C-alpha cells in the first residue's frame, strides 16, 4: 500500500474512533492510550507493508536532507570505486583456501563462475539505480517494493555488516603493513589494555588512525575521495599485475595438473571434479563483495542512465579478469596441495630462494587494497545511514547533507568514531 494513501485512510478513520483517532490522541487519556495499544498490531501490520513510490523517494524523502548531494561522478569514477571496493585483502586469503580444499587449479574456473554470478547481481543493482538514482541502495529498493519492515531488517543487517567488517579490515591493515616493512606489527603497534578479556584488550592505534583519516576525506568531498581512491587503486592494480607477471614467470605449467603428493591427493586440473569447482566458487564469491556499495553513489552520478551501468558492470568484469589471472599465476607457482591456505601468494614466494622480498611487495599491495576497500565501504555506509535517517528509522540528524561539501557530513563523521 502506498504510504500517502495509508495516511489519508488513517485520517479518514479519525471520525469514528479508528486508527486516526488513536494516532491523534493516544496520550490524551488512559482510555485512549489503552485503545491505541489494542490497535498496535493492526497499525504495525499496515506500516510494515506500506511502500513508498520511487517519485516520493526522489522528491519528498530526499528533501529531508536539506541540501542536495553534488552530481560530479562519472562512469570512470564508478569503475574506480568498484575496483577499490572489491579488490581488497580477501582475494589474498580466499584463493588459497578454495584452491587447497576444493577446486585445485580449477579455481580459475571458480572465479569465472563467481564473477558471472556477481555480474548478474550487479545488473539488478544497476536497473534499480538507473530507475531510482538515490543514495539508499538496497534499503531504498526494498522500501519501494516490499515495504518498510523488509527495508528496516535489511538496513539493520547492512549497517551491522559494515561496522563489523570495517573494524576487522582496519585491524588487518596493521598486519599487512607490518608484512610490507618486515615488522611483527600486531605485537608492536597494538596497546594492551589491562582488565579487559583476552582477545578484546588490544587497541590498534594504526587502525584507528586509518579510520579517522578516511572519515575526514569522505566528509570533505565525494569527488576528491574518488580521486584519492583512483590513485590508490591504480597503484594497487599495479602491484597485482606485478604478482601476476611474477607468478607466470616463476611458475611451472606442470603444477596445473600435478600435485605435490600424488599418493594422497588426486591430480588433474579439476582434482575434485565439478563439485569442487562450484564449492570453490561459493568460497571465492566473498572476494567480489563491494560492488553493491557503488550503487549507493547513484545520487551523485552526473548521468545515471549511462554512467551507472558502465561503472558497476565494468568494474565487475575487470575484477573477474584480474582474479582469474591471479588464480592461474598462483596455481603455476606451486602444486595445489602445497599452497598455504592463510597466505597463498606470499607463502609461495617465501619458499623460493632469493625471492622472499616479493612477499613484502605483496604485503604492500594488500595494504593499499585494504585502504581502498575501507574508503568505498565507508562511502557506502555513510549513504545508507543518510537515507535510513531520511526514512525516520534512525535519527534525522544523520540525514543532513552539508550545503558546502554536498556530502552527508553527520553520517560520515559518525562512522569515524574510534572502533
UniProtKB/TrEMBL annotation:
Signal peptide residue numbers: none
InterPro entries according to UniProt: AA/rel_permease1
Pfam family, one: AA_permease_2
Compartments where located: Membrane
Keywords: Membrane, Transmembrane, Transmembrane helix
Main location: membrane
Transport keyword on record: no
Gene Ontology MF terms: amino acid transmembrane transporter activity
Mode of membrane association: Multi-pass membrane protein
Annotated transmembrane regions: 78-96, 108-128, 140-160, 203-220, 227-249, 269-289, 310-334, 354-380
A single cellular component GO annotation: plasma membrane
Family to which the UniProt record says this protein belongs: Belongs to the amino acid-polyamine-organocation (APC) superfamily. Cationic amino acid transporter (CAT) (TC 2.A.3.3) family.
Identification of the protein by name: Cationic amino acid transporter C-terminal domain-containing protein
Amino acid at each position: 500500500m502506498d504510504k500517502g494513501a495509508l495516511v489519508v485512510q488513517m485520517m479518514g478513520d479519525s471520525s469514528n474512533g479508528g486508527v486516526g483517532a488513536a494516532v491523534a490522541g493516544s496520550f490524551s487519556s488512559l482510555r485512549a492510550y489503552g485503545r491505541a495499544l489494542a490497535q498496535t498490531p493492526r497499525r504495525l501490520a499496515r506500516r510494515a507493508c506500506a511502500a513508498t513510490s520511487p517519485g516520493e523517494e526522489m522528491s519528498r524523502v530526499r528533501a529531508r536532507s536539506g541540501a542536495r548531494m553534488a552530481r560530479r561522478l562519472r562512469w570512470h569514477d564508478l569503475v574506480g570505486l568498484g575496483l577499490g571496493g572489491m579488490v581488497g585483502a580477501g582475494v589474498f586469503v580466499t584463493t588459497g583456501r578454495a584452491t587447497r580444499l576444493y577446486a585445485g587449479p580449477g579455481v580459475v574456473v571458480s572465479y569465472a563462475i563467481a564473477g558471472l554470478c556477481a555480474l548478474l547481481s550487479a545488473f539488478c543493482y544497476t536497473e534499480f539505480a538507473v530507475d531510482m538514482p538515490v543514495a539508499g541502495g538496497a534499503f531504498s529498493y526494498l522500501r519501494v517494493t516490499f515495504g518498510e519492515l523488509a527495508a528496516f531488517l535489511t538496513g539493520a543487517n547492512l549497517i551491522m555488516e559494515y561496522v563489523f567488517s570495517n573494524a576487522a579490515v582496519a585491524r588487518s591493515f596493521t598486519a599487512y603493513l607490518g608484512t610490507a616493512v618486515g615488522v611483527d606489527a600486531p605485537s608492536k603497534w597494538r596497546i594492551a589494555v589491562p582488565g579487559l578479556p583476552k582477545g578484546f584488550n588490544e587497541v590498534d592505534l594504526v587502525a584507528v588512525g586509518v579510520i579517522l583519516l578516511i572519515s575526514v576525506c569522505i566528509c570533505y568531498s565525494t569527488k576528491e575521495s574518488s580521486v584519492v581512491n583512483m590513485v590508490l587503486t591504480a597503484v594497487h592494480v599495479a602491484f597485482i599485475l606485478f604478482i601476476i607477471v611474477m607468478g607466470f614467470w616463476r611458475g611451472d605449467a606442470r603444477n596445473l595438473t600435478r600435485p605435490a603428493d600424488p599418493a594422497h591427493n588426486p591430480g588433474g586440473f579439476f582434482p575434485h571434479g565439478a563439485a569442487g569447482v562450484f564449492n570453490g566458487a561459493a568460497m571465492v564469491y566473498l572476494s567480489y563483495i563491494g560492488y553493491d556499495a557503488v550503487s549507493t553513489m547513484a545520487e551523485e552520478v552526473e548521468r545515471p542512465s549511462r554512467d551507472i551501468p558502465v561503472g558497476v558492470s565494468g568494474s565487475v568484469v575487470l575484477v573477474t579478469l584480474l582474479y582469474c589471472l591471479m588464480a592461474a599465476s598462483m596455481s603455476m607457482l606451486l602444486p595445489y596441495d602445497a599452497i598455504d591456505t592463510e597466505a597463498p601468494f606470499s607463502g609461495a614466494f617465501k619458499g623460493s630462494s632469493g625471492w622472499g622480498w616479493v612477499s613484502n611487495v605483496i604485503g604492500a599491495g594488500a595494504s593499499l587494497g585494504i585502504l581502498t576497500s575501507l574508503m568505498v565501504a565507508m562511502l557506502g555506509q555513510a549513504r545508507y545511514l543518510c537515507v535510513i535517517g531520511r526514512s525516520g528509522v534512525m535519527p534525522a540528524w544523520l540525514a543532513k547533507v552539508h550545503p558546502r561539501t554536498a556530502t552527508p557530513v553527520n553520517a560520515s563523521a559518525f562512522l569515524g568514531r574510534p572502533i
